[in-house]
Structure formats: C-alpha cells, structure tokens
Specification:
about 500 residues, mainly beta, Immunoglobulin-like, Nuclear Transport Factor 2, Chain: A, 4 domains, 6-stranded mixed β-sheet, 5-stranded antiparallel β-sheet, 33 strands, signal, SbsA Ig-like domain-containing protein, SbsA_Ig
Length: about 500
C-alpha cells in the first residue's frame, strides 16, 4: 500500500514531498513561540479529519496531553492545531506529534510518525510589550489584569497641545492575566486595522485606554479635537468581550461617538454618555444599563413624547405666568423689577443652573414688544426632534408658528429631574431665517387654518410663491397656500416657511 508524506508549517512550509520518510523539523523558529500559537500541518493528500483528531496531539514535558482543537485549514490537505482555550503555558516545552496511524481520505496511512518540539515565550507576550495594565473584575467578582500590548513601546509624551501631534502606531493586542493563567486574546481592538494613539500634552495613551469602573474599560480613537469614537470591553468567563450598544430605535453598534473622556459610571449597572452637539450648543446625554449576560449596553429612556410635551408645556407655561404676572404689575407703578419677588415661586419649576438665565431675561425682556418670552404656543405635530431622552434628562426641539405674539422659530426645551421632580433646565429660541425654516405641506397648512377660532371649514384653492425677508435682511422664496374659508366667506394664505396666516 502506498504511503503519503507530510510537511509541517513553522514560519514557512517545509516540504518533504518525494523523501522516503518525514524529517523532524527543528530550528531556532521553534523557540519563543506565542502562547496562542496555531500550527498548520500541510500534507500531500487530503486527510480524514476524524483521523487527524485522533492521531495529532500535543503533550507537555510530563507527557500529559494538552486539550487542543483540530480543524481543516484552507483545504483538506491542511490541518490546523489550535491552542487550548487557556493557551499554552509560558516558558514551557511541548511536543507536537503526528502519529503514523493518521489516514488520508482514501484510508491510506502515513509512512512514519512526525514529532516536533516547541518552547513558548518566556513572558507570555513574545515580541509584544505590556504598555498599560487595568484591574478588571468579572460579574462573579473574580479579579483579572487586562494588558494592553504593543509590538513597539510608546514614544515619550511631547509638550505639544495639538491633539494629532506625535502619533503612536504599532500592532496592538489585548491580553488577560489571572492568578492561574496568562494569555493573549483575539478580541479586536477598536474595529480598525489603522488603530492610532497619540502622546502629547492634549491627548495621551492613558486618556484613550482607560478604566470606566471595575467592570468596564474603553479604547478610544480620536475623531475630532474634543470627541472620540469609543469601544467598550468587559471580562466574562475568562475572556475579554466587546460590549455592543443596543439603542431604543432597535439599532445596534459596536461603538459610540462621545465627548473626550466623558463616558461615566453613574451607579450599579447604569452608565452615561455625553456628547457636545455643536448645532445646538448643548451637551446631550444618553444613559445605558449594562447587561453582563448578553454583554450589551441597553439604552434607557425616560418619558415618551406625549408625556414630555405635556410636562414641558405645563412647566414653561407656569414659569411664563409667574414671570409676566410680576412684570405687568410694575407697569404704570413706582414698583421696580425685582427678581427676588418671584424666585421662590420658580424654584419648584426651574433648576438652579437655569435660574440665572431666567433672572437675566426678567431684567432684559421688553414688555412693549410683540413677541413674548417663553411663549408656549408650540406645534409638536409639525416638528419634534428629540435630542436626548434619559430617565433624568430630556431635551427636544419644536416650533412656534409666526403669529400675533410670536415671531416664529425653533425652540429647544430641556427638562431635568431633580429630587424626583421634573424642572426646566434649558430654554433656547431661534427665529426662522433664510437658512432654516419650515416647509409645510398642503395638509399641514390646511390644519393650521382649521385651528383658527373663527374657522369652521376650508377649501384648498391653490398655491403661489412669495419672496420673504428674514430678520437678518436676507431674502428667500416660500410657498403660499391659498384657502377658501367658511364656505367662501373669506380667503386666506398660509406661509409654508413660518406658518403665518394672512388674508388673500
């Protein structure tokens, strides 16, 4: 019966085809082997996998069998010997043996057995250096040391304050050490092959690889000068596991955008993300609870939209009433404006941080002007953009249509829970302008007309265009919807950019 031959891949494939017997491959490449080394054995014919599982084994110096996993490589002529789950022990010699009882898929046995000794690296990391250590506990409270490894040591921190100066590029890995084992892991780092850190006065490695608490650590990649793309990890069942984000809208992600170093642990399994939104000039928050079993950060929300609308209108309307009742009393009298008269009444409604803004508005507001401060004639059905929603913060943008007491524009309202009560934490308005304004549909314009007190029914007549001039003096083109009101009694127009109603 014809025998077949094999070769074993160390650093390269050593070919033994055509020789009468396999040769034991021994060289310096068998030293300082990584503890997570996977060996690939290449044969000159297809191998029975069941036979390979029985006839290929690894033993330590005491002759004890090591629990490896055997699988095919890129084809049936390649057999891969995967390391044990806990990896090979460091600084230890092992023997890899291919018995001569191994069979090809045709049932032919090998001509001779083949053995190879190899010795693992002394420090457990091979050519890599542990450049950062973090003490992390698993859900059962068992302590581990997470090592952040690199094949090149980091450069010294420079005095530059430019975040992108002095980049640190290398090959990076994660490793896990316990009282009984020490191993590198295959967990991906930051989802990218171009992982880069920096070593300067503004941003350093310790800022970008850090513990959040005893259960979670983060690896950050700079996105802008003040924001990062963050990847989070925990330890579970003796492995480093990446944490997935599950959002309220059903979407998932392996990372989030975050303000530089602003992700924090609040309490127990609750964590909070903070991200500065340049468009609104606000730091917005998202809260998550960590599910250790599924290794998922689940987004937590507070109020639904209807509840928020109701609370926001009630709180802002109450502040508006207290505010103007006092101011109107000063008209035509010798009484001067004095915010201390209403401050105690506002405390249950306004956060301490926002009280100063209310006070400034109290002294600056114009009573003779047409537009009133904190008017709550909002049209949530036309526009509501939820900017943040957590059990303790909620912020949304809505619109105020142009009318008798309103200039028309976008309002941003924030509520914050303090001592169990929701309070006004932020109020910000901006007028419609040529760059940002509404674009109402015909049905939305019709609904605006129907909501007027004197209107019973409307009939659509058509639309025209009109040039508007905004408060900055800039012009833009808008659509004007025309309606017949109350069975032709009158006609009116609704401006699609502001919601303003006027006669035909």
């Amino acid at each position: 019966m014809k025998k077949f031959y094999l070769s074993m891949m160390l650093a390269v494939i050593l070919s033994f085809a055509g020789m009468q017997s396999p040769v034991l491959a021994e060289s310096n490449s068998n030293e300082n082997i990584a503890t997570d080394k996977m060996w690939t054995i290449t044969f000159n014919t297809s191998i029975s996998l069941d036979s390979a599982k029985e006839q290929i084994n690894v033993h330590n110096q005491d002759g004890e069998a090591i629990s490896t996993t055997i699988s095919y490589g890129s084809n049936e002529k390649q057999i891969q010997v995967h390391p044990p789950k806990e990896n090979y022990a460091p600084n230890t010699t092992y023997t890899l043996t291919v018995q001569d009882e191994i069979k090809s898929k045709n049932g032919v046995k090998a001509a001779n057995p083949h053995t190879m000794d190899f010795t693992t690296q002394k420090e457990g990391w091979g050519d890599f250096h542990s450049i950062k250590e973090m003490q992390i506990k698993d859900p059962q409270g068992e302590a581990y040391t997470v090592h952040f490894l690199a094949d090149e040591k980091p450069p010294a921190v420079t005095s530059s304050t430019m975040w992108f100066d002095n980049p640190y590029k290398a090959e990076f890995k994660l490793a896990l050490e316990s009282n009984t084992s020490k191993k590198t892991v295959s967990t991906p780092i930051a989802d990218s092959e171009d992982t880069t850190f920096y070593q300067n006065e503004a941003v350093a490695l310790d800022d970008l690889v850090r513990k959040i608490n005893d259960s979670v650590f983060v690896i950050s990649q700079m996105a802008y000068s003040s924001s990062t793309t963050d990847y989070f990890y925990t330890v579970k069942d003796g492995e480093i596991e990446p944490i997935t984000f599950s959002f309220a809208d059903g979407e998932t992600s392996t990372n989030i955008m975050n303000t530089f170093k602003e992700f924090e642990h609040l309490n127990e399994n609750t964590y909070q993300q903070a991200f500065y939104n340049n468009a609104f000039g606000l730091t917005l928050h998202t809260q998550y609870t960590l599910n250790h079993n599924n290794v998922v950060f689940n987004q937590q929300q507070g109020m639904d939209k209807k509840e928020f609308q109701k609370k926001a209108e009630h709180i802002v309307d109450s502040v508006h009433e207290i505010f103007y009742d006092d101011l109107i009393d000063t008209v035509g009298s010798s009484q001067e404006r004095d915010f201390s008269r209403i401050k105690d009444d506002l405390r249950p409604l306004v956060t301490q941080d926002h009280m100063k803004e209310i006070e400034d508005a109290y002294y600056d507001v114009c009573l003779e002007c047409e537009a009133w401060y904190m008017n709550v004639d909002w049209s949530w059905d036309i526009h509501m953009n939820t900017l943040e929603n957590t059990p303790s913060h909620m912020t949304a943008e809505t619109v105020e249509l142009e009318g008798n007491l309103a200039s028309g524009g976008y309002d941003v309202v924030s509520l914050k829970k303090e001592n169990g009560n929701w309070k006004l934490a932020h109020f910000q308005g901006s007028l419609f302008d040529s760059n940002r304004h509404l674009d109402l549909s015909k049905d939305q314009a019709k609904q605006i007309a129907l909501e007027l007190n004197t209107v019973n029914n409307v009939t659509y007549l058509g639309k025209t265009t009109q040039e508007n001039t905004d408060h900055n003096g800039d012009t833009y083109t808008t659509t004007m919807y025309r309606f017949s009101v109350n069975d032709g009694e009158v006609t009116m127009k609704v401006d699609a950019s502001t919601g303003a109603v006027s006669g035909a």
